[in-house]
Design brief:
Elements lengths: L9 E6 L9 H10 L8 E5 L5 E5 L2 H8 L4 E6 L2 E4 L4 H4 L7 H4 L8 E6 L37 E6 L15 H10 L3 E6 L2 E6 L7 E6 L8 E2 H14 L3 E4 L1 E2 L10 H11 L3 E5 L16 E3 L8 E7 L2 E8 L2 E8 L5
Parallel strand pairs: 6-10, 6-12, 7-10, 12-14, 14-15
Antiparallel strand pairs: 1-3, 1-4, 2-3, 5-11, 5-13, 8-9, 16-17, 17-18
Helix pairs in contact: 6-7
Length: 336
């Protein structure tokens, strides 16, 4: 039978029975392969810390046949997640070197794993000036090489996108760079947007270490369930203290079908704190999918930027507010 692209859509297989003698990674991976119809490279990821199962490419018929095996608890098609997207510190009343921040260590010694689109390691938010070495428990690795590499701030970077798994976890979309910098970047003085809204770019845990796990494909920016589960599984093994995700499904699903809820439940049992964003939609009320996930809500952007464009005797005033552009045209005099 010729396998089409549609027929080879990865299925996440969650196994409910694993022999105690198969707990090593090597023997577990071999046992997974023994359940498959042939020795062709089908397994995309195998999991050990968050679920007992693996992601594999199968035809519909092969998946149905595998479901009949007594070792298999369930099979389901892979889900695709979408991305979520600054005045949080000031909104919370936090001031640099004052009060709560002054009395805290700003995340010193904490390792935060971020699951996103990758990262731009040369961004000033990831400077390691004054940063200590990572904690001794850290077992992760950095897939950057050359000038753009990891340091004592950005201590790890992995690419878990299955179609580009050998490529460094760079990005040119800057969603992952943005979310990682918000969580644990450094204070950046004189930050601005093309010279506007100048100030200090403040973050929440500036002394924490960052590990980036790229789970979203460049170009399409689709975030695959198998990659997300693999990243959570590896991050726990690497020794992170916190997992931060700004991703979600476009529709609600039950706990048993929500991979983030499943992975987060396993992570909390291993004393890893899991934080997720509450999406970009609204303003309707909604309930987070799992009570064991800390959910961070979003609010209206409070920055308003005015730009004035002079063309002959006309003045155009553009007001940018909440991504809506209002154009006000006023008759005026020439300004020289």
């Amino acid at each position: 039978m010729t396998l089409t692209k549609m027929e080879l859509t990865p299925k996440l297989l969650i196994l409910g029975f694993i022999l105690p003698s198969l707990q090593s990674k090597e023997s577990l991976h071999g046992w997974y392969h023994s359940l498959l119809p042939d020795t062709t490279k089908r397994v995309i990821f195998s999991y050990q810390n968050i679920v007992d199962g693996f992601a594999v490419k199968l035809t519909t018929e092969e998946a149905k046949a595998l479901e009949k095996k007594e070792e298999v608890l369930s099979t389901r098609p892979e889900k695709i997640f979408s991305l979520h997207t600054t005045h949080t510190p000031s909104f919370l009343g936090l001031r640099q070197n004052q009060e709560l921040w002054q009395n805290s260590n700003l995340g010193k010694g904490i390792i935060i794993g971020v699951l996103d689109t990758g990262i731009y390691p040369l961004h000033p938010s990831f400077s390691d000036e004054g940063m200590p070495s990572p904690p001794a428990k850290w077992k992760g690795r950095c897939e950057f090489t050359g000038e753009a590499t990891c340091n004592n701030k950005l201590i790890g970077a992995r690419n878990l996108v299955k179609s580009a798994i050998k490529e460094p976890p760079f990005e040119n979309f800057f969603h992952g760079t943005h979310t990682a910098a918000k969580v644990a970047g450094r204070f950046v003085e004189d930050a601005s947007v093309f010279g506007n809204a100048k100030g200090v770019a403040a973050v929440m845990a500036t002394n924490a270490h960052i590990a980036m796990y790229k789970v979203c494909a460049s170009g399409t920016w689709e975030c695959y369930e198998s990659s997300i589960l693999a990243a959570m599984d590896i991050a726990i093994e690497d020794g992170v203290d916190v997992l931060s995700l700004s991703l979600s499904l476009d529709s609600s699903v039950s706990f048993f079908e929500d991979p983030i809820a499943i992975g987060a439940f396993a992570a909390t049992q291993k004393v890893v704190f899991v934080s997720c964003s509450a999406a970009n939609s609204g303003p309707e009320y909604s309930t987070p999918s799992a009570t064991w996930i800390f959910t961070m809500g979003a609010s209206t952007i409070v920055v308003t930027v005015f730009s004035v464009l002079m063309i002959q005797r006309w003045m155009f005033l553009f007001k940018v507010y909440r991504y809506n552009i209002r154009k006000i045209i006023e008759r005026g005099e020439d300004f020289i």
